[in-house]
Amino acid sequence: MMEVWVEKYRPRKLKEVVGQSAIVTRLESYLSTKNMPHLIFTGPPGTGKTTCAISLARELFGDYWGQNFLELNASDERGIETVRKKIKDFARSASLNIPFKILFLDEADSLTSDAQSALRRTMERYSNNCRFILSCNYSAKLIDAIQSRCAIFRFSGLEDKEVIANLKKIAENEKVKVSDDAYKSICFIAMGDMRKAVNLLQISCAISKSVTDDDVYKASGAVHPKNIEQLVDETFRGDFLKARSILDDMITKYGIGGDEILKGIHKVLLDKIDDNESLATLMDRVGEIDFRLVEGANERIQLEALLAYFSIFAHGKGIK
Asked: Can you give the pTM of this predicted structure?
């Protein structure tokens, strides 16, 4: 069985965390005082929220961090009973050889409103014995009573150069060859998500020890930008039937979902269209189709309708 590289290469210290220098600097200030408030880590997935929480506990507690750090996922058990039992039992139990413990609650925005209200009371009652780190994608989904009790840290998506630098270190340690185009493709698919990028690199290396961009797209199951570019180009040329044939191959032959195709079209349009008015009009239609797909409309019909609109619009505007 392959070793999971995400865990193998997880930073052990805060200063090793990639792409979040401002946040790391703020967190390191807690190390000097050996104290911290309740925290909220919010931002996109794969940007270092869990890693920062674990690294902070490691550096604060040293050898005792494992006994005094509890990680729970709120999306698994999101009801009030979880707060009343697991969380409360840990928060009120005595800490070992340290002044306080840390409870890390991942996906805290999945908790029901009743559970959040109960959590707020637990945080308040046992604050001397336990500090809470709440991780979420959207802090606005947490009730105001919790937000006001915490220091909020907002994580941002990682830049491509930061992702590539970290992937190159992993590739060097694992003694695998990765082309520059493969690194760019991984970044294109991961979109600032380091965890997704590392997992994708590992899967790609299982296909070939000399990874190319084609290997990356085979491993990810994502649509290749070249195919999307061909689809859009044929549409703008007015060859709707050719574009429809390419779309049909993507859906039936390669099994690519409509939402993935739509995301690919969105990215290609941003790179291809320079005119602000034309781009705004096309993006408005992409957003409309996305809404229809979310609402359960037939993806083939909706995507064909989008291509038809592109073809008519391009003919009127003279786009090629």
From this structure: 0.81
